[in-house]
Design a protein that fits this description.
The protein has one domain. Helix 2 crosses helix 5. The chain has 5 helices and no strands. The longest helix has 30 residues. It is mainly α.
């Protein structure tokens, strides 16, 4: 005879996993903001840039995706850590995404 399934325990386990995934996602988003230098922006500026990114056209978002992929590729190829980001991208990359975001939001 089969052992009956404990649905309550399975549901609790799934809820615990969902909480862990959400916490990890929040942590990774915070790390991303810091790695890109976006933590230097004010909360309103960052929120505005993110809202413009969400509303941007597909072609603009695709260009940003490619740029982001290059950022991660460059970071992995370097020494890693914040030093690789500061040397390779903060001055050049941190300011550049703002004009397209503002341009897409203004359109």
């Amino acid at each position: 005879m089969r052992k009956p399934r404990d649905f309550d325990a399975e549901l609790k386990s799934l809820n615990d996993k969902a909480k862990q995934l959400k916490a990890r996602k929040q942590s990774q988003l915070g790390e991303l903001v810091q790695a890109t230098g976006a933590d230097a922006l004010g909360m309103e500026e960052l929120a505005g840039a993110l809202l413009a990114a969400v509303a941007a056209e597909h072609a603009t978002r695709e260009a940003w995706r490619k740029r982001g992929a290059a950022f991660f590729h460059r970071e992995g190829a370097g020494t890693g850590g914040a030093a690789g980001v500061e040397h390779g991208g903060t001055a050049k990359d941190a300011g550049s995404p703002q004009p397209p975001a503002g341009g897409a939001g203004a359109s």
